[in-house]
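Class, look over these structure tokens:
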Amino acid sequence: MKKFELLTIETLSKIRPVLESKLPISGMMLNIINAAVKSSKNSEEGLRTIYGYDGAVNLDTLFIVTLFKRTNDKQFTVMYTHDDDAVTTEMLTAFSELHDWSKPYVFGAIPEAFSVHLEKIAIEKGGSISRNLCADMYLPMEDALKLDLNKMDFKDEFEVDKLTEENALKVDSHWKYGKGGEFMAEVIKSSVSAGVFKRKTDPNTGETSSSRANEDLVSWIVFIELGTLNALYTSEDHRRRGLAQWTLEAGSKWAAEAGFIPMCEIEEYNVQSRSLVEKVGYKLLHNVNWMYYVPSGEN
């Protein structure tokens, strides 16, 4: 019986042009694979492990699943198929066997057709699963690369730059999936990030500078391993000044420069965030479900 197999870097490299031909719908998985190829790592010992149904030997019926191990209690899964309606019973059985259903999972950006399959599997395993409808948004790379980060209104008061590992705990403490900062430190170290820092004026010289210290960090965003820009946050006393937009623009442009498709997930009720990303130029790809599986016996 066919099953999901760990994909080699060589196989992932062969898959990339196939996913590129399916853009933008394949953008999230393409970002994940690009990150793996850049790092030359895809193993079951790592934080990110990419599997392909039947070893992804048939690129016309591609079914890829990425499992993310976390230091907290949530495991994440992202999957991609060319056609969710073409998923067979054999494929679903292999997908089910790839997971340990005694653990809680977050299934990210799941299309409606596959959401139904997940709900059936959850019932079979005796657990429960809930949905959170989100808008899957993307910014064309050519548009991201044209973003102008020179904000003259802010030049004396703020500056935008990449985050440092020192900022990880502060960023993590305001992230809904955060827990301890260790994971966020690794994200900042190895991926794309952007932060807006307050500049300080030297009373003697009148010159301004920023230390990149947490006390100067007022807005930030990171490109997480799930293939999306995430954790956008602006300190309450610095909101409504355009800093969140500047942060998003910087993160989007730097992600594109690094070879990633700028993508983000906006929860259905979050009208303010949807308005912000559309202002930057993001477009709706489709609506997807973030699904939360809880094993039997757990709350």
In short: The longest strand covers residues 283-294.
